[in-house]
Amino acid sequence: SYALTQAPSVSVSPGQTARFTCSGDKLGDKYFCWYQQKPGQSPILVIYQNTMRPSGIPERFSGSSSGDTATLTISGTQAMDEADYYCQAWDRSSYVVFGGGTKLTVL
Amino acid sequence: QLQLQESGSGLVRPSQTLSLTCVVSGGFINNDDYSWSWIRQPPGKGLEWIGYVYHSGSTYYNPSLKSRVTISVDRPKNQFSLKMSSVTAADTAVYYCARSGGFGLDCDHWGQGTLVTVSS
After folding, report:
1. pLDDT value at position B26?
2. Which residues contact B89 (CB under 8 A, 6 or more apart)?
3. What is the pLDDT of residues A55-89, one digit of tens each?
4. B63–A86: do the CB atoms touch at under 8 Å?
5. How far apart are the C-alpha atoms of A90 and B100, rounded to whole Å?
6. Distance of residue A76 Cα from the nearest chain B Cα, in angstroms
7. Are the beta carbons of A48 and B113 separated by less than 8 Å?
8. What burial class does residue A4 get, using C-beta atoms within 10 Å of its C-beta: 0-12 exposed, 13-18 middle, 19+ buried?
9. How far, in Å, CA of A90 to CA of B3, rounded?
């Protein structure tokens, strides 16, 4: 079965750049997205179709991919960005899969 | 503004069937551009996709749950439902409904989630 791998945690200081990676077989050939989830809240879509940002999502959130790895980047991280981040992928030959999530700590 | 609201039993006995409904408001479920998903999250753990349904009734399920899950749509009531049979404690989770679409079936609108506990 298809699997997506994320690091358990990332820590940055305010103003620094936070990077989250998501790895999966030929992930760069699939469509993927990223969600932010704060404690006790529903997930929020922050990147869709690999690089697109929904309306209302700050420009400091960006998505990219290379080979088997997708990356979510937060430039100029703020305290309000502290949350769990999940990647999700889908293509017509597989079902929808989530990564295990990465917890962002803003020190 | 599209809104989704889950409802159903919060406590289910082991081996029984879990039943949840998601009511869609502020938009129509009868839309070819979107599918309607169920996703769950065990306490303290990550997200797990359960499956999705189109307004036509076509469904797609997570292979690991497929034998126990049925997702259906009720177009006149603008809602869709989840049934999961033979539940165990491992099915205890917050269950979310969501609208999914686009090339990657990304979920752009989510319900608030409902906690379902499996316990005798």
Report:
1. 95
2. B14, B118, B119
3. 999 999 999 999 999 999 999 999 999 999 999 99
4. no
5. 11
6. 24
7. no
8. buried
9. 24
Q: How far is the C-alpha of B37 from the C-alpha of B60, rounded, in Å?
A: 9
pLDDT band at B51 (very low <50, low <70, confident <90, very high): very high
- CA–CA dist A88, B29 (Å, integer): 23
SS3 annotation, B83-99: EECCCCHHHCEEEEEEE
Q: Which of A95, A98, A102, A103 to mutate to test the interface with B (most CBs of B within 10 A)?
A: A95
- Nearest by CB to residue B106, choosing from A1, A45, A95, is A45
pLDDT of A94 higher than 70:
no
Give mean pLDDT, residues B32-61: 94
User: Closest partner residue to A43 among B47, B62, B64, by Cβ?
Assistant: B47
Say whether residue A24 is in contact with chain B using an 8 A CB cutoff: no
Tokens 């996703």 correspond to: B39
| Cβ contact B63–A33 (<8 Å) | no
Please report the DSSP string for A27-87 in residue order: GGGSEEEEEEE-TTS--EEEEBTTTB--TTS-TTEEEEEETTEEEEEESS--GGG-SEEEE
Residues of A in contact with B4 (CB under 8 A): none
